[in-house]
Amino acid sequence: MNKDYIADIYKDFFGEELTLPQEKEIQDDVSLDISNLLLSDASLDVLQKIILYMKQFSTKEKNMYLNFHLILQSNNREFLERIESFFKTIAFQYSYVSIHQFAKISFYDVDSFDTLKKVFESNGIIAFKDLKALEAKDVDFQKKFFHLLKDSVILKKVIILEGSKDEVGTFFEHDSSLQKSSFPFVLEEKILGVSDVYQDVLDRVNQDGNLSDKLSLQILDYITNTYDKSDMDYPTYRDLLCREVLLNHSVPAVEKSKSIDEVFERLNELVGLSKVKKTLYELVDYMNLREKGKDLSLNNVNLHMVFLGNPGTGKTTVARLIADILYELKYIKQNKLIEVGVKDLVAEYVGQTAPKVMSVVERAMGGILFIDEAYALASKNGDSYHDEAIATLIKAMEDYRDQFVVIFAGYTKEMQDFLDSNSGIVSRIGYTFEFDDYTEDELVEIFNGMIKKSGFVVEEEAINKLRDIIRRNKDMKNFGNARFVRNIFEKSIIKHATRVKKYKSQKIIHTITVDDISIENLNIH
């Protein structure tokens, strides 16, 4: 917020000796509790001055109309809803807007500028959210939209922009003069301390006054240890805690941090994958060097990745472990992996693909976006929808490079052809992982691991039969590797269950024999 500019506005329009209305006066005047808005002290001061100016304008004590376009700097849905409701009530009560109608628009949902313009024309207050999605719109749409915002200065309307500080900053990069000239009023939420959160939670879960001292202390300890570290917005954090207390009379389990050694222990338990493990160790070593060598001039790590490999070679499993590793290294803020396919990115109608892609990107923010069979994104017969999906992804990978990681995964040949035809994606890839097919011995080891984990033992003759099946099918197109072995394991357990249903001997029940090894309905040799 430009402080000098705001000060000049206050001086010109509010008056130098402005006496602010008392909180009770505001409550009586608009029938709302201003203390409930969770505003910072500075923002509360701004809002009080706006209220008073609107009132004085309605009584003709002020005759200069001032556009109170707002920036609500927050991702807290509760805060946003409260401010919207409060501001709408005030503006309508004092007839400070030309039309007593309110609309809230997500840029994900807007399919054309004409639609947006109609909404703009039929409402007195328009709130815009999901500002990031504006990036997915074409240049013509963006130009028309910003021209519309500038025109709104001469209309009796209020425009509200909602988003985080970074989102708002990126939004105004399109036109740096717009914020100073038309959006000088920034309202920020109050930063709650542990004691504020604790009291809020107690008010919600202890309405009957029967909360035990022990559970009250557990709640306080939980908030003390987790609140400042949480990536959730406040209402989500509070509601999850309240739900656990009310339903289970306990607090949620605190997530225990895993060491890198513990994560790699799980990786090393996986059969094979020697190339993948080597590349991951080298990546972590480099990231640790950057962290320890503060005075070293080392490049930022580009962690967008490509996974090349046939079905069942462990691509998804490794992606989940990478999420653990990057989270423990604090490279990503949330330990999450969003798995999507091409159908989740490409829409059926014009204008819907870019918003669809940005919606997926938004879900992946703070974590990893895993795109399986990504080669299907390649344009087929000049399909503009696929091209639009790739273009939107490329821009998001560049714009939000440090905020999420993209992993493109798929069959080696198809993925290589896709990458060779798309320099935009290749230039944004930092790491390529090659997932080799499993050897016969490795597939048997995977099978034995499944047997052991399930509490069974397997006869040698059964293993020999499995080896024979693997040899006969390993060279077939799209051989399933570990997935192939898992299918045999599952079919064999079902057949075993039928075979031993009349027996009571624990040895027989727990032993997989050659007669149990089944390839029924698997369409293999």
List the helices and strands and how they pair.
Blueprint: H1 3-14, H2 23-30, H3 41-58, E1 70-73, H4 77-93, E2 102-106, H5 113-121, E3 125-129, H6 139-151, E4 158-163, H7 165-171, H8 176-182, E5 185-188, H9 194-205, H10 213-226, H11 234-248, H12 260-268, H13 274-292, E6 305-309, H14 315-328, E7 337-340, H15 353-364, E8 368-371, H16 384-399, E9 405-410, H17 412-420, H18 423-426, E10 431-435, H19 440-453, E11 457-458, H20 460-473, H21 482-499, H22 506-510, E12 511-512
Whole-number tally of structural domains: 4
Strand fraction band? Answer: 5-15%
Considering the protein shown, what is the CATH homologous superfamily of the largest domain?
A: P-loop containing nucleotide triphosphate hydrolases
CATH class of the largest domain: Alpha Beta
Main features:
525 residues; five-stranded parallel beta sheet; Rossmann fold; 4 domains; alpha/beta
Could you explain how this protein is built, in words?
- About 50% of the residues lie in helices and about 10% in strands.
- It has four domains: about 5-190, 3-Layer(aba) Sandwich (Rossmann fold); about 195-250; about 260-435, 3-Layer(aba) Sandwich (Rossmann fold); about 445-510, no CATH class.
- The longest helix is centred in the middle third of the chain and has 19 residues, at about 275-290.
- The relative contact order is 0.07.
- It has about 525 residues and is of the alpha/beta class.
- α15 runs parallel beside α16.
Entry summary:
It contains 22 helices and twelve strands. By secondary structure, it is α/β, with parallel strands linked by helices. Helix 15 links the parallel strand 7 and strand 8.
